[in-house]
Structures are given as C-alpha cells and as structure tokens.
Specification:
seven-stranded mixed β-sheet, two-stranded antiparallel sheet, 12% strand, disordered N terminus, binds 2-acetamido-2-deoxy-beta-D-glucopyranose
C-alpha cells in the first residue's frame, strides 16, 4: 500500500461519504501477521543487500577510480579545457622541490584574480597529487616523467630534457585553440599583465638583457647580442593560437633537436628559443613587452636607481641572474617578494 493510496483513504474535510467512526473490519492487524510480516522481512533483507551492494560499489569505485588513478589518466587537453577562461590558459611547469615557488607565484597571481586559469604541468607524480588533492584539476602530468634526479640541476642533460617538453606543451594548447601564457615560477606578479598584451600579435615576450632601455623603446625583436642571437627570456611568453605562433613553436622544437645537449654546450631551452625567434622574425608577428613592466632580474635586483625611477611600473619580477634554490628565496625575502610563508591563505593550495 503506497503512502499515496493511504492518504487517499484518509477522510477528507467535506467528504460526502465519511467512513463510519468504527471501521467494520480488523483488516490491519490481521494483514500484519499474515501478509506484512514476511513482506517486512523481505524488505529488510532487500535493504540489507542493497546497503551491502552500495558499500561494495563504493569500495570498488574508490579503489579503481582512486584520486591517484583519476589524475594519472587526466590529459593536457582535458586539463586545458577545464581551467581555460576567456579562451586563455596560464601555464607553468613544476617539479616537487619547486612547490614553495609555485605557491609564492600563485599567491601573486591570485591577487590579480587570474589563478582560476592556472594549469600546472607536474613534472613528477608527487607534484601531480599534491596540487590536485588541494586544488582538483589544476595539475596535469604529461608522460613520460623526466628523470627527477637530474631534472633540477641547471645545465644538466636532465634539465635540458625537462625544458625540451615546454614548447611541445605550449603547441598542444595552441592546437586546442586557446591563448596561452607561460611563466616560470620564480616570478612574482605585482600587477595584472593582461592589459599589456596589446594588439593582436602572435607572440609576446620579455628581454633578458640587463641594459637599461628608454621607456619608449621599440617593441620588435631586439637586435642580436654577442652570440649572434637575441636574449629573449623563455620565462614569460604569451602566444595566441595563430599560424605564426605555432610556426615559432615548431621552429623552437626543431632548434632544440638540432642542438642536442652536450657536456660542452650545457644547453637549456633559451638559446634554441632565441634562434627560433631569429629565424622566424619575418613570418611571425612578435611583440617585445615594455622593460619597465617586465624587467629581467639582472636589472631589477641590481640597479636600485632604475628601480626608483620606474617605481609603480613593475608588473612581473623574475628572480633570475642568480642560481640556487636557497639564494632565490633569500633574495625574494630581502625584497619583500616571498609571500609563501605569511600569505599562504591567499593561495588556492593553502600552506604547502
Ligand atoms: C574575461 O574577460 C572579461 C571581459 O573582457 C573580463 O572582465 C574578465 O576579467 C576576464 N576574466 C579573466 C579571468 O581574465
Ligand atoms: C635525455 O634524453 C635523451 C634522449 O631522449 C636520453 O637518451 C637521455 O637518457 C636523457 N637523459 C636524462 C638525464 O634524462
Ligand atoms: C639572426 O642571426 C644572424 C646571425 O647571427 C644575424 O646576422 C641576424 O642579424 C639575426 N637577425 C635577427 C632579426 O635577429
Ligand atoms: C642603472 O640605472 C640608471 C637609471 O636608469 C642608469 O642610468 C644606469 O646606467 C644603470 N646602471 C647600470 C650599471 O646599468
């Protein structure tokens, strides 16, 4: 007997045929003993088995679809689609020892309200799980995992192999139709960089040369330096999903393959990026971002006069022109740019 049927039997106000005050039959107690009792037993059994089945299903679900398995199969394309906002993804690449730098950078990005667009390319499983556990969907691992023992040593072959992956990830995101901004995580945002991406150029980048330029410097590819190529930083690049930008990335990949790592060369990806810029300048629409807003660490941390003169204009600070994890943290602290200790509550990852 359903609840609905039972309610229908209830006397209604104004019922033209109200039931007699003494129901004629002891139907209920009778039915309870001969019919409802076995039914109740059956129902309880059914309920128990249902509960058991649900428990089992849940158990199976969590072992087969454990968070670990879920993120192991998460692809760059799924991740980019998940984080993209206004057709734009902000990408960084991080291995486990660099999590404090990631958090520091992320706090500064969150202050500009762009953190939701951030995708972390995890270079090891520990990073993948650490990020996605706290901030689901914002980290992805693109196999194969590089050799983590050597991947952090600047100038090593492992480091080179690690940087080789960067233009490939960027190209894949452009192929999906998104704009992408790449950042090294030893950077700090002091302002929103997006208003500086003026016009509709294919690629935007910053100069790594420390020499002071006039505030109204030109925005084309700077002339080559001593090594015959420009000194553009591969640390901060913005690309639109255009033919020109994809062409540049393919050239960058090609250049890295043509100049493989050797003990003598100790290559990283920056020379190859600069040769790619040098060789594609006539086919790609390039834009050099203003030095006062995007200074190299070689200028910002070394010329106090310049920093004073350009006060209020700085947008992204790069902690380069210095080698070593501890030294970078120390320098950030000295300049009030180490946010990871006191402001971790502003990070989507919390304290890490
Ligand atoms: C997306 O674009 C709109 C309109 O230009 C802007 O107001 C908003 O801040 C943008 N959001 C992000 C996350 O960039
Ligand atoms: C780097 O990549 C090359 C070519 O794929 C490989 O032979 C080498 O073992 C890798 N080295 C390290 C240290 O990852
Ligand atoms: C490209 O490199 C060559 C060789 O160093 C140099 O002569 C040329 O000026 C460079 N072009 C640009 C646009 O940087
Ligand atoms: C430091 O900056 C000042 C002011 O912009 C500039 O005149 C000077 O040449 C710079 N010093 C060096 C060593 O580049």
């Amino acid at each position: 007997m359903s609840l609905h049927q039972r309610q229908q039997q209830k006397p209604q106000v104004g019922d033209p045929n109200p039931p007699s005050p003494h129901p004629p039959s002891p139907l209920l107690p009778h039915a309870f003993s001969t019919f409802t009792k076995p039914l109740l037993l059956l129902l309880s059994l059914l309920l128990l088995s249902l509960l058991f089945f649900r428990f089992q299903a849940h158990y199976n679900f969590s072992s087969a679809q454990s968070p670990l398995a879920r993120w192991r199969d998460y692809t760059l394309s799924e991740a980019a689609t998940f984080v993209a906002q206004n057709g734009t993804v902000i990408l960084c690449a991080v291995s486990y020892p660099y999590l404090p730098f990631l958090n520091n950078w992320l706090i500064s990005v969150a202050r500009q309200r762009h953190h939701d667009q951030v995708l972390v390319v995890a270079e090891d499983y520990a990073t993948l799980y650490a990020v996605n556990e706290r901030w689901p969907g914002h980290a992805v691992l693109v196999p194969p995992v590089p050799d983590t023992q050597t991947a952090h040593k600047f100038g090593s072959q492992g480091f080179f192999n690690f940087t080789l992956r960067r233009p490939r990830h960027l190209l894949q995101i452009l192929d999906l139709g998104y704009n992408v901004m790449y950042n090294d995580v030893d950077m700090v945002w002091l302002g929103d960089p997006f208003p500086y991406l003026v016009g509709t150029h294919d690629v935007y980048f910053t100069d790594d040369m420390a020499a002071v330029k006039p505030l109204d410097h030109p925005h084309g590819l700077p002339p080559p330096g001593k090594k015959g190529r420009p000194y553009i930083c591969s640390c901060m690049i913005y690309l639109r999903p255009t033919r020109g930008a994809k062409f540049l990335l393919k050239k960058w990949i090609e250049e890295m393959q043509e100049q493989p790592w050797s003990k003598k060369q100790k290559a990283n990806d920056q020379p190859a990026f600069n040769w790619a810029l040098n060789k594609t300048v006539s086919q790609v629409d390039m834009y050099l971002l203003p030095q006062a807003a995007f200074p190299t660490g070689g200028l910002y941390f070394k010329n106090k006069t310049w920093v004073r003169e350009t006060k209020g204009m700085h947008v992204i600070i790069h902690n380069n022109y210095i080698i070593g994890f501890e030294k970078k943290i120390k320098r950030f602290r000295e300049y009030g740019l180490w946010l990871a200790d006191d402001y971790s509550h502003e990070s989507p990852l919390g304290k890490i």
